[in-house]
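Hi R.,

Here's the chain you asked about this morning:
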Amino acid sequence: MSQGLIEAYIEELRRTLSGPRRLKADLLVESGDSLVDAMEDYRHSGYSEAEAEVMAVADFGAVAEVAPAYQRELALAQARRTVRWFVLLMAVQMVLASESWKSTGAWSDRQPTDGYLLFTRFWDYSQMAFVVMAVAALFAFSLGVRYVSAPWRFARITGMLTLAVLALKALASAVFLVATPHLASGMVSTVSLTHPESLLTLAGLLVWILPNWYVAASAIRCIVISTTRKLGTAELSRRRTAFNS
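And the predicted structure, written out as tokens:
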């Protein structure tokens, strides 16, 4: 890529955009290639390299004009990633929950109360509802949202709702730990490589904790990306003025 206005433009665009690194890199490469192709066309028409750069950038549009469309794609991509990981997390945890529950022997010496069973059933149905809503959101992001004028709002809502559900999950887990006899002690005592069931319990703990942090980080990034709206162009304007003079 030519050193000059085009490079400054791409660098300004890089600093302005925020989102998944791979998609952002692809967008920058595509923009750079388009600018270079336009510059070469102008050079073949008899313009100098500096003039061709200025004209190519002018045709492409200012960063403040171009970046919102790119940021839109990045915000939606981050929202889709967050929802996909959330669905996977919930599905895996729901499957492992009953098995890891059995391996701890939490209710080995008594029967759960009616209130406890009611809360357990309510939480099971709630998790199913969360998964259904997440799948519906993923479907909406793939189809209808692209026609909405302000898609970052949906991306921001996705991040906020994901964090809210993760907070509810943490609260429900705390309730289960407190209300279930022998659950915490059973989980600790069975985490031993000398017992085959310990591997399942340990896997359950890892699947329960680490992915939650990853999904939470993705949700926070979703909110941050969808809130990125400032499009500074001072340096680009300065470089364009310098080339025009």
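The CA atoms of residues 165 and 237 lie 44 Å apart.

Let me know if you need anything else.
M.
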